[in-house]
Amino acid sequence: MDSDLEPVALTPQKQDNAWKHCEIYKYGDRLQMRCLYCRKMFKGGGITRVKEHLAGKKGQGTICDQVPGDVRLFLQQCIDGTVRRQRKRRNPSSEEPLPVADLPPCEGETMVVQGDVNNGFTSPGSSDVVVQNENMSVSRTKQRTYRSKKSAFENGVGASNNSELIGRDMDNLIPVAISSVKNIVHPSFRDKENTVHMAIGRFLFGIGADFDAVNSANFQPMIDAIASGGFGVSAPTHDDLRGWILKNCVEEITKEIDACKATWKTSSDTGCSILVEEMSSDNGLKVLNFLVYCPEKVVFLKSVDASEILSSADKLFELLREVVEEVGSAHVVQVITKCDDNYVAAGKELMHTYRSLYWVPCAADCVDKMLEEFGKLGWISEIIEKARAITRFVYNRSDVLNLMRKFTSGNDILQPAVSTSATDFATLSRMAELKSKLQAMVASPEWNECSYSKEPSGLAMTAITDEAFWKELVLVNHLTGPLLRVLRIVCSEKKPAMGYVYAALYRAKEAIKTHLVNREDYIIYWRIIDQWWEPQQHVPTHAAGFFLNPRFFYNASEEMRSEIIPSVLDCIENLVPDLNIQDKISKELNSYKNAVGVFGMNLAVRARDTMLPAEWWSTYGESCLNLSRFAKRILNQTCSTSVGCRRNQIPVEQIYQSKNSIEQKRLSDLVFVQYNMRLRQLDPESGGDTSDPLSHKRMDVLEEWVSRDQAFVEEIGSSDWKSLESVKKTQVAPIIDETDDLGSDFNDAEIFKVEKEVRDEVYYTNTSEKLFT
């Protein structure tokens, strides 16, 4: 029957909130709906039946047991609001008269309603409202005011024209005789929305909330839930938030994590990775956050005060062992930490204790160390400082910033990334993309007429016209751009990175070698990479990920395959405890290596480059079932603790600053809820960081790029943020999949041959002479 179902797109006319949580199909002349969560198909009953199914309301159908708790709560509130409105229509006298909507009219318009004190036009605790129809004016005495969102004012109203909307809303809201709907001139929706937004702004400013609060996945559902409740809904109290609401949220998140744990146990071809995230506070407190990664979801387990633990490898090992036991050692494929010496020692002891898992240094941390070392090279640090002089000048003067954004079509030069070093080189890359636009700016009449162009500090902008500066900057991008791509791949929220990291590092070294050609030039940078990549190169799971990704394996040379196969066999021995299954996998490897049977079919060959590697094995690996399960267990893992790195830092340290054991436990539960909610709302389709680069929360990586010069003297209005203009942003370069061009030949034996000797610190000097003479 599924083949007869024709998908139907959601149209603007389908305004019920439940439509967003189901798929719509056309079967003949009838519409059928399928729940997005439990996949139940509804062949009748309309959207109401689906809503009751999701909200957990006992009706004629089943209740969904997989819908997220926030969705269930929201739809319950929608149903409750609808019931109240229906009761009110049937028996309006039983309801308390509602107040007049105190919404601002459009410019040049007033809201006019005919009525008098004898028509019952009253609100509790207020005098009668007298409304005249003469000259389109309104006079009010005391009245109770309120604010509402569109959905509250339009309760029960679908798409309609303004006159119909106003008539029905006023009938529902106020028991008053209205002689003519045509005499009502209602404010536009934009004015109503602005009123609501101002109220939200006052609230957020008043409590000192971060502006990113409005980007929360829970923000709009909160507004919709308030609106669906109708008038008279009270706000939760302080005790409610600290009490039953927090308790319910803890239970909700705990159930979600328990469901994940069940997945780890039942899915033999998935497994999970334990991510260990280290955080430091200004007062010296060191906290370890423990997260668990699987392809479906990343969850936060707990945090631990590790201030007295990190200095001892033995204590760190005991802590890691406790977490492995909590998750279940049989389900853990790897434990990922930083690559510092104490973690290395603890990780080796962990692998000695648990033969069925691996300790893996964080790939993002290793790549960041490479970029940090690149930034220490003399000629590169000079380029970074010249570029910083430009951005410091631009981002401390609102007029110059307006001019820059005008010429760059709203794009910023600054590109905040996961670390200071990554931010440095990402910003240089963006500056190169904007080269022609920046040069056009400094050649424009607007710049020449600008008083700031004559300032001594404005001399920094002359670098924009200096071709030598751009030549060096482009070379820096050639050297570091490939590493930035590796960093984006290992931090990806879209794809498990295990099947790509090995190939990505190969391509990075290949790109540097191709650009510099002479070995004496590129070996300087290769040694920096090898110094930090060597621990990663000896990680069997990384090599196995390359081997089991058909996109790369069939393009690799025989020499590279033979170099990697010992790592694959090591993974089989450790991750597959059953000896019989180990033997079966060894036999099935030949079918894969030789592209025998299904593996050699044209369909499977074409799919090597278009499907995710784990999906490819699910589709074409049925003839080698044991190898397929093993491959998916490897390929479904990440290789970094920085997955979801765009999440804001949760103030975990607050737990350990409390001196009361009860309050400390409450704070621990609060962090548990906050962290998992942030992880839940990560957006894999996001194009990157969209926050204002001048925001204080980005100063951890952008301070050197936006801090004003010591000689800066503020002119009147030079830093007035209110004069900043809004410019519609256009994309500088298309957003691409970083893994798209990783799959050509892998036949350069030198690239993955790690150098045994590391050159002395001398190789950091005189680099510019080698490159530019």
Short description:
The chain is of the alpha+beta class and 773 residues long.
What do these coordinates show?
The chain is 48% helix and 7% strand. By secondary structure, it is an alpha+beta fold. It is globular and about 80 Å long. The chain has helices at residues 46-55, 69-90, 150-153, 162-173, 189-207, 219-228, 238-266, 313-327, 341-353, 363-376, 378-394, 398-407, 420-433, 435-442, 445-449, 467-490, 501-516, 519-537, 540-548, 550-553, 558-575, 579-593, 602-607, 613-620, 625-635, 654-657, 661-680, 699-706, 767-772; strands spanning 6-8, 22-27, 30-35, 41-42, 272-280, 286-294, 297-305, 332-337, 358-361. Helix 9 (341-353) links the parallel strand 8 (332-337) and strand 9 (358-361).
Q: What are the main properties of this structure?
A:
alpha+beta; 7% strand; Nucleotidyltransferase, domain 5; 4-stranded antiparallel sheet; 773 residues; disordered C terminus
Given the C-alpha coordinates, what overall shape results? globular
Helical segment tally? 29
Oligomer: single chain
Strand count: 9
Tell me, rounded to a whole number, the average pLDDT.
Answer: 79
Assess the beta-strand content as a share of residues. 5-15%
Measured as a percent range, the helix fraction is 40-55%
Summing up helix and strand content along with how strands pair, one would put the structural category as alpha+beta
Looking across the biggest beta sheet, what order are the strands in?
7-6-5-8-9
Which residues form runs of ≥5 with pLDDT under 50? 93-186, 683-689, 755-773
End-to-end distance, in Å?
A: 72 Å
State the major sheet: 5 strands, mixed
Radius of gyration: 31 Å
